[in-house]
Amino acid sequence: MLGPATARTDTHTWILPIGTPAMRCILTLLISLLILSGCQQSSEPPPEAPAHIPWVKTVELKEAGPTAQRFSGTLRGRHEVPQAFQIAGRVQQRFIDPGQRVEKGDLLFKLDTRDLAATAVGAAADLKRAEAALAIATNELQRQQQLVERQFVSEQTLQRLELAEREARSQLETASSRNKQAQNALGYAELKASNAGVITEVSVEPGQVVGIGQTLAVLAADQLLEVEVFLPEGINPPRRGYLPLANGKQIAMNLREIAGAADPRSRSWRARYSLEGPYPSSLTLGSVVSVRLAQKQTESSHRVPLGALDERGQTPQVWLVSDGTVNPLAVEVIDLGKEYAEIKVEINAGTSIVALGTHLLTRGMAVRELTQ
């Protein structure tokens, strides 16, 4: 059973039974008002949330300096002297190895000297025989001169003895020269370093028979170092460059010589660049190094961080920031470094470009700049 309902006015309070028609009308009216109020509140649109505009780091486009192209080169000595015997023979001993440093006069190779010693002994004996023959001829000539003065012998006999003495003297000179050659050959059996330096190459072993002038090793003087570079055909050899070191420092290089003709097989030109000392211990002869050769600035170029390059298009591109939006611009990459890239593009220096996160950008995207 439902109890009576209470209705209140300004002056009177009415108690209405819940089941009366008047009470039902009042309840219906109140329910309708509540439904209408709920509909009005739900129909109002909620306030819009502000759109999220990302931040991007930007940098200003800068003019690049003269182009420095990278090449691989070989570190060599200014003077590289092939070491060879002046006589032929069989190598008996080798006293060096590749990469070994030697001083002037150090023994490098030694030949078998048995035949050379025998030849020297024979030459010495021939010299003594020639000396004895000359002494006999001289004494005989002197004795005959006394007889001619006493007119015991004829002038023709004296002339014959003078010729014999002259012949013995020339034979002595010949024997003396041969003896000297034999002694020199015996000394040539030991090959010594012509100057201080590093042995860069050894091409013979003990027991091998070598000829006169055959290269046995290459001795490079390490007081003056150079870089040998092979340049592509058609390139103008730069006059200057530098050799970057592991510690971040650089060694200046200057062009010393360029080959008179291109290599017939590789069609490249050999160039030698001298290094300005002092040299660090990390530079060793024969090692391969990467050098930078400065080219003349023939056209304008710009330097940008590597993160500014976007490779999603058909060509590399950078993103320009203008009026709060970004748009891509195709560029030509000239050179790539460890941190920066050199590009060619028709745009003024000082233009703002996106430095990082270019792979997340789209054309016309709204951004906020965070300058570097």
UniProtKB/TrEMBL annotation:
Residues forming coiled coils: 127-185
Record's keyword terms, sorted: Coiled coil
Gene3D superfamilies reported for this sequence: 2.40.30.170, 2.40.420.20, 2.40.50.100, Helix hairpin bin
Residues covered by the Multidrug resistance protein MdtA-like alpha-helical hairpin domain: 123-188
Keyword Transmembrane applies: no
Pfam family, one: HH_MFP_RND
Taxonomic superkingdom: Bacteria
Family membership: Belongs to the membrane fusion protein (MFP) (TC 8.A.1) family.
Name the UniProt record assigns to this protein: Efflux transporter, RND family, MFP subunit
Provenance organism: Marinobacter adhaerens (strain DSM 23420 / HP15)
